[in-house]
Protein backbone atom coordinates (compact mmCIF):
# COMPACT_ATOMS: atom_id res chain seq x y z
CA UNK A 1 0.00 0.00 0.00
CA UNK A 2 1.37 3.40 -0.93
CA UNK A 3 2.34 5.68 1.93
CA UNK A 4 0.10 8.68 2.13
CA UNK A 5 1.69 12.09 1.59
CA UNK A 6 0.73 13.01 5.09
CA UNK A 7 2.53 10.08 6.71
CA UNK A 8 5.63 10.63 4.57
CA UNK A 9 5.75 14.28 5.51
CA UNK A 10 5.56 13.64 9.23
CA UNK A 11 8.22 10.91 8.97
CA UNK A 12 10.50 13.32 7.16
CA UNK A 13 9.94 16.02 9.76
CA UNK A 14 10.64 13.52 12.55
CA UNK A 15 13.94 12.44 11.01
CA UNK A 16 15.01 16.05 10.63
CA UNK A 17 14.24 16.80 14.30
CA UNK A 18 16.17 13.69 15.26
CA UNK A 19 19.23 14.89 13.41
CA UNK A 20 18.99 18.31 14.96
CA UNK A 21 18.69 17.13 18.53
CA UNK A 22 20.77 13.97 18.71
CA UNK A 23 24.32 14.66 19.70
CA UNK A 24 27.30 12.88 21.16
CA UNK A 25 30.67 13.42 22.71
CA UNK A 26 33.69 14.22 20.62
CA UNK A 27 37.17 12.89 21.36
CA UNK A 28 37.82 15.83 23.59
CA UNK A 29 34.79 14.90 25.69
CA UNK A 30 32.85 17.96 24.63
CA UNK A 31 29.38 17.78 23.21
CA UNK A 32 29.31 17.63 19.40
CA UNK A 33 26.36 17.17 17.11
CA UNK A 34 26.53 13.83 15.27
CA UNK A 35 28.27 14.35 12.00
CA UNK A 36 27.87 11.32 9.77
CA UNK A 37 30.52 12.51 7.32
CA UNK A 38 33.31 13.12 9.73
CA UNK A 39 32.76 10.82 12.67
CA UNK A 40 34.83 10.99 15.76
CA UNK A 41 37.11 8.00 15.18
CA UNK A 42 40.75 7.12 14.89
CA UNK A 43 42.53 6.39 11.65
CA UNK A 44 44.61 3.20 11.32
CA UNK A 45 48.02 3.64 12.97
CA UNK A 46 47.14 7.14 14.18
CA UNK A 47 49.32 8.10 17.15
CA UNK A 48 47.42 7.85 20.43
CA UNK A 49 48.49 7.82 24.04
CA UNK A 50 46.07 5.11 25.18
CA UNK A 51 48.04 1.98 24.19
CA UNK A 52 51.58 1.31 25.33
CA UNK A 53 52.95 1.21 21.79
CA UNK A 54 51.34 4.57 21.02
CA UNK A 55 49.38 3.41 17.98
CA UNK A 56 45.64 3.06 17.47
CA UNK A 57 46.07 -0.19 15.53
CA UNK A 58 46.50 -3.35 17.56
CA UNK A 59 49.04 -5.95 16.47
CA UNK A 60 47.57 -9.20 15.11
CA UNK A 61 47.40 -12.07 17.54
CA UNK A 62 50.33 -14.36 16.85
CA UNK A 63 49.44 -17.04 14.34
CA UNK A 64 46.58 -15.05 12.80
CA UNK A 65 45.87 -16.17 9.23
CA UNK A 66 43.82 -14.14 6.78
CA UNK A 67 40.82 -15.96 5.40
CA UNK A 68 41.85 -18.17 2.47
CA UNK A 69 45.55 -17.77 3.26
CA UNK A 70 46.09 -20.92 5.33
CA UNK A 71 48.36 -22.62 2.87
CA UNK A 72 49.63 -25.64 4.71
CA UNK A 73 49.38 -27.77 1.58
CA UNK A 74 53.12 -27.72 0.91
CA UNK A 75 53.10 -29.63 -2.38
CA UNK A 76 50.47 -27.45 -4.00
CA UNK A 77 51.50 -24.06 -2.60
CA UNK A 78 55.29 -24.43 -2.36
CA UNK A 79 55.96 -27.07 -5.00
CA UNK A 80 57.88 -29.13 -2.45
CA UNK A 81 57.41 -32.08 -0.10
CA UNK A 82 59.57 -31.82 3.02
CA UNK A 83 61.56 -29.15 1.23
CA UNK A 84 62.26 -31.25 -1.89
CA UNK A 85 60.77 -30.30 -5.25
CA UNK A 86 57.79 -32.37 -6.37
CA UNK A 87 58.27 -34.33 -9.57
CA UNK A 88 54.57 -34.46 -10.48
CA UNK A 89 51.98 -31.74 -10.66
CA UNK A 90 50.00 -31.79 -7.40
CA UNK A 91 46.35 -30.91 -6.98
CA UNK A 92 45.16 -28.87 -3.99
CA UNK A 93 44.38 -31.23 -1.10
CA UNK A 94 41.10 -31.18 0.76
CA UNK A 95 40.97 -30.46 4.48
CA UNK A 96 40.34 -34.15 5.18
CA UNK A 97 43.30 -35.23 3.08
CA UNK A 98 45.55 -32.73 4.83
CA UNK A 99 44.32 -33.77 8.28
CA UNK A 100 44.80 -37.38 7.25
CA UNK A 101 48.47 -36.66 6.55
CA UNK A 102 48.30 -36.92 2.75
CA UNK A 103 51.27 -35.07 1.27
CA UNK A 104 50.32 -35.04 -2.38
CA UNK A 105 47.83 -36.23 -4.97
CA UNK A 106 48.93 -35.80 -8.58
CA UNK A 107 46.83 -33.68 -10.89
CA UNK A 108 46.14 -35.24 -14.28
CA UNK A 109 47.75 -33.29 -17.11
CA UNK A 110 44.75 -32.71 -19.33
CA UNK A 111 44.45 -30.85 -22.58
CA UNK A 112 42.51 -28.14 -20.72
CA UNK A 113 45.38 -27.69 -18.25
CA UNK A 114 47.90 -27.37 -21.08
CA UNK A 115 45.68 -24.91 -22.98
CA UNK A 116 45.39 -22.79 -19.85
CA UNK A 117 49.13 -23.06 -19.35
CA UNK A 118 49.83 -21.98 -22.90
CA UNK A 119 47.52 -18.99 -22.56
CA UNK A 120 49.07 -17.88 -19.24
CA UNK A 121 52.58 -18.56 -20.54
CA UNK A 122 51.92 -16.39 -23.58
CA UNK A 123 50.73 -13.56 -21.36
CA UNK A 124 53.32 -13.74 -18.60
CA UNK A 125 56.45 -15.52 -19.79
CA UNK A 126 56.72 -15.41 -23.56
CA UNK A 127 57.76 -11.73 -23.67
CA UNK A 128 61.12 -12.83 -22.23
CA UNK A 129 61.31 -16.60 -22.69
CA UNK A 130 60.05 -16.65 -26.29
CA UNK A 131 57.37 -18.70 -28.01
CA UNK A 132 59.21 -22.00 -27.70
CA UNK A 133 61.14 -21.18 -24.53
CA UNK A 134 64.51 -20.51 -26.18
CA UNK A 135 64.91 -17.34 -24.11
CA UNK A 136 64.57 -15.08 -27.14
CA UNK A 137 61.43 -13.09 -26.32
CA UNK A 138 60.86 -9.54 -27.50
CA UNK A 139 61.97 -7.94 -24.22
CA UNK A 140 65.26 -9.80 -24.49
CA UNK A 141 65.64 -8.64 -28.09
CA UNK A 142 65.30 -5.10 -26.72
CA UNK A 143 68.08 -5.60 -24.21
CA UNK A 144 66.75 -7.39 -21.09
CA UNK A 145 69.05 -10.02 -19.56
CA UNK A 146 68.53 -13.20 -21.60
CA UNK A 147 67.09 -16.12 -19.63
CA UNK A 148 68.47 -19.60 -20.20
CA UNK A 149 66.71 -21.76 -22.77
CA UNK A 150 64.24 -24.26 -21.27
CA UNK A 151 65.89 -26.85 -23.49
CA UNK A 152 69.25 -27.02 -21.75
CA UNK A 153 69.88 -30.32 -20.02
CA UNK A 154 69.76 -28.87 -16.52
CA UNK A 155 66.25 -27.43 -16.99
CA UNK A 156 65.05 -30.44 -18.94
CA UNK A 157 65.98 -32.58 -15.96
CA UNK A 158 64.75 -30.13 -13.32
CA UNK A 159 61.78 -31.41 -11.32
CA UNK A 160 58.50 -29.71 -12.16
CA UNK A 161 58.42 -28.14 -8.68
CA UNK A 162 61.41 -25.99 -9.69
CA UNK A 163 59.34 -24.25 -12.36
CA UNK A 164 56.58 -23.59 -9.85
CA UNK A 165 59.16 -22.20 -7.42
CA UNK A 166 60.69 -19.87 -10.04
CA UNK A 167 57.25 -18.47 -10.89
CA UNK A 168 56.32 -18.06 -7.21
CA UNK A 169 59.60 -16.69 -5.87
CA UNK A 170 61.52 -15.42 -8.88
CA UNK A 171 65.04 -16.48 -9.80
CA UNK A 172 68.10 -14.23 -10.08
CA UNK A 173 67.25 -11.39 -12.43
CA UNK A 174 63.71 -12.67 -12.86
CA UNK A 175 61.21 -11.27 -10.41
CA UNK A 176 58.40 -13.19 -8.72
CA UNK A 177 55.12 -13.72 -10.53
CA UNK A 178 53.27 -14.66 -7.34
CA UNK A 179 51.11 -11.55 -7.47
CA UNK A 180 50.16 -12.13 -11.10
CA UNK A 181 49.92 -15.90 -11.43
CA UNK A 182 47.71 -17.90 -9.04
CA UNK A 183 49.01 -21.26 -7.73
CA UNK A 184 46.80 -23.37 -10.03
CA UNK A 185 47.95 -21.31 -13.03
CA UNK A 186 51.59 -21.72 -11.98
CA UNK A 187 51.07 -25.46 -12.30
CA UNK A 188 49.34 -25.02 -15.65
CA UNK A 189 52.33 -23.02 -16.90
CA UNK A 190 54.77 -25.58 -15.49
CA UNK A 191 52.86 -28.32 -17.36
CA UNK A 192 53.03 -26.28 -20.55
CA UNK A 193 56.79 -25.73 -20.16
CA UNK A 194 57.14 -29.50 -19.92
CA UNK A 195 55.22 -29.78 -23.21
CA UNK A 196 57.51 -27.14 -24.77
CA UNK A 197 60.55 -29.09 -23.62
CA UNK A 198 59.16 -32.26 -25.12
CA UNK A 199 58.38 -30.45 -28.38
CA UNK A 200 62.05 -29.52 -28.80
CA UNK A 201 63.36 -32.93 -27.79
CA UNK A 202 60.92 -35.51 -29.11
CA UNK A 203 61.45 -39.17 -28.42
CA UNK A 204 60.52 -42.00 -30.76
CA UNK A 205 56.97 -42.97 -29.92
CA UNK A 206 55.91 -39.41 -29.00
CA UNK A 207 54.07 -39.17 -32.30
CA UNK A 208 51.22 -41.50 -33.25
CA UNK A 209 52.27 -43.92 -36.03
CA UNK A 210 49.64 -42.50 -38.39
CA UNK A 211 51.18 -39.02 -38.06
CA UNK A 212 54.69 -40.42 -38.52
CA UNK A 213 53.54 -41.81 -41.89
CA UNK A 214 52.75 -38.29 -43.06
CA UNK A 215 56.27 -37.02 -42.44
CA UNK A 216 58.42 -36.68 -45.56
CA UNK A 217 61.22 -39.18 -46.05
CA UNK A 218 64.85 -38.12 -46.01
CA UNK A 219 64.97 -38.26 -49.86
CA UNK A 220 61.88 -36.06 -50.11
CA UNK A 221 63.47 -33.49 -47.83
CA UNK A 222 66.67 -33.50 -49.89
CA UNK A 223 64.75 -33.24 -53.13
CA UNK A 224 62.72 -30.33 -51.80
CA UNK A 225 65.92 -28.61 -50.75
CA UNK A 226 67.52 -29.11 -54.16
CA UNK A 227 64.44 -28.03 -56.16
CA UNK A 228 64.37 -24.40 -57.33
CA UNK A 229 62.43 -22.31 -54.87
CA UNK A 230 58.95 -21.39 -56.00
CA UNK A 231 57.04 -18.70 -54.23
CA UNK A 232 54.05 -20.83 -53.31
CA UNK A 233 52.78 -20.78 -49.75
CA UNK A 234 53.91 -23.84 -47.87
CA UNK A 235 51.37 -26.62 -47.57
CA UNK A 236 51.02 -28.73 -44.46
CA UNK A 237 53.62 -31.44 -44.42
CA UNK A 238 55.96 -29.57 -46.72
CA UNK A 239 59.40 -29.16 -45.27
CA UNK A 240 60.71 -25.67 -45.73
CA UNK A 241 64.44 -25.23 -45.68
CA UNK A 242 66.18 -21.88 -45.88
CA UNK A 243 66.90 -20.84 -49.45
CA UNK A 244 69.22 -18.25 -50.81
CA UNK A 245 66.17 -16.37 -52.11
CA UNK A 246 64.71 -16.31 -48.57
CA UNK A 247 67.88 -14.69 -47.36
CA UNK A 248 67.71 -12.14 -50.17
CA UNK A 249 64.11 -11.35 -49.20
CA UNK A 250 65.01 -11.12 -45.53
CA UNK A 251 67.75 -8.65 -46.28
CA UNK A 252 65.89 -6.59 -48.85
CA UNK A 253 64.68 -3.22 -47.63
CA UNK A 254 60.96 -3.08 -46.90
CA UNK A 255 58.86 -2.45 -49.97
CA UNK A 256 61.24 -4.17 -52.38
CA UNK A 257 60.21 -7.70 -51.38
CA UNK A 258 59.06 -10.10 -54.05
CA UNK A 259 55.36 -9.44 -54.35
CA UNK A 260 54.56 -12.06 -56.96
CA UNK A 261 51.48 -13.52 -55.21
CA UNK A 262 49.85 -10.10 -55.13
CA UNK A 263 49.84 -9.80 -58.93
CA UNK A 264 46.78 -12.02 -59.04
CA UNK A 265 44.91 -9.40 -57.04
CA UNK A 266 45.41 -6.67 -59.61
CA UNK A 267 42.22 -5.37 -61.14
CA UNK A 268 40.07 -6.69 -58.31
CA UNK A 269 39.45 -3.25 -56.81
C1 LIG B 1 61.02 -9.82 -17.82
C2 LIG B 1 61.56 -11.02 -18.36
C3 LIG B 1 61.07 -12.35 -17.83
C4 LIG B 1 59.78 -12.80 -17.73
C5 LIG B 1 58.53 -12.07 -18.13
C6 LIG B 1 59.86 -14.14 -17.19
N1 LIG B 1 61.15 -14.49 -16.97
FE1 LIG B 1 61.81 -16.30 -16.36
N2 LIG B 1 63.74 -15.62 -16.43
C7 LIG B 1 64.11 -14.35 -16.83
C8 LIG B 1 65.55 -14.21 -16.65
C9 LIG B 1 66.37 -12.97 -16.99
C10 LIG B 1 66.01 -15.43 -16.14
C11 LIG B 1 67.44 -15.77 -15.74
C12 LIG B 1 67.63 -15.30 -14.33
C13 LIG B 1 69.02 -15.50 -13.80
O1 LIG B 1 69.59 -16.59 -14.04
O2 LIG B 1 69.49 -14.58 -13.12
C14 LIG B 1 64.85 -16.29 -16.03
C15 LIG B 1 64.91 -17.60 -15.61
C16 LIG B 1 63.83 -18.47 -15.61
C17 LIG B 1 63.91 -19.89 -15.38
C18 LIG B 1 65.19 -20.67 -15.18
C19 LIG B 1 65.60 -20.78 -13.77
C20 LIG B 1 66.88 -21.62 -13.68
O3 LIG B 1 66.85 -22.62 -12.96
O4 LIG B 1 67.86 -21.26 -14.35
C21 LIG B 1 62.65 -20.39 -15.45
C22 LIG B 1 62.22 -21.83 -15.26
C23 LIG B 1 61.76 -19.28 -15.72
N3 LIG B 1 62.52 -18.13 -15.83
C24 LIG B 1 60.41 -19.37 -15.85
C25 LIG B 1 59.58 -18.29 -16.13
C26 LIG B 1 58.15 -18.39 -16.20
C27 LIG B 1 57.36 -19.66 -16.03
C28 LIG B 1 57.68 -17.14 -16.49
C29 LIG B 1 56.24 -16.70 -16.62
C30 LIG B 1 55.40 -16.91 -15.47
C31 LIG B 1 58.82 -16.27 -16.61
N4 LIG B 1 59.95 -17.00 -16.36
C32 LIG B 1 58.75 -14.93 -16.92
C33 LIG B 1 63.30 -13.37 -17.31
C34 LIG B 1 61.94 -13.43 -17.35
Describe this protein's structure:
- The protein has 269 residues and is mostly helical.
- It has a domain at 111-202: Cytochrome c-like domain (Cytochrome Bc1 Complex, Chain D, domain 2), CATH 1.10.760.10.
- Helix content is 39%, strand content 4%.
- The strands form 2 sheets. The protein has a two-stranded antiparallel sheet with strand order 1-2. Strands 3-4 form a two-stranded antiparallel sheet.
- Helix 4 crosses helix 9 and helix 8 (160-169) packs across helix 9.
- It binds heme C.
- Heme C (HEC) is lined by residues 124-125, 127-129, 139, 144-145, 147-148, 155, 163, 166-167, 171-174, 177, 181, 189.
- Heme C (HEC) binds next to helix 5 and helix 8.
Bound ligand species: heme C
Number of strands: 4
Question: Which structural class is indicated by helix and strand composition?
Answer: mainly alpha
Instruction: Give me the oligomer status.
Output: single chain
Strand order of the largest sheet: 1-2
Question: Which architecture name of the domain at 111-202 does CATH use?
Answer: Orthogonal Bundle
Return the CATH topology of the domain at 111-202. Cytochrome Bc1 Complex, Chain D, domain 2
Average pLDDT rating: 81
Compose a concise summary of this entry.
The protein has about 270 residues and is mainly alpha-helical. It is built from twelve helices and four strands; from the N terminus they run H-E-E-H-E-E-H-H-H-H-H-H-H-H-H-H.
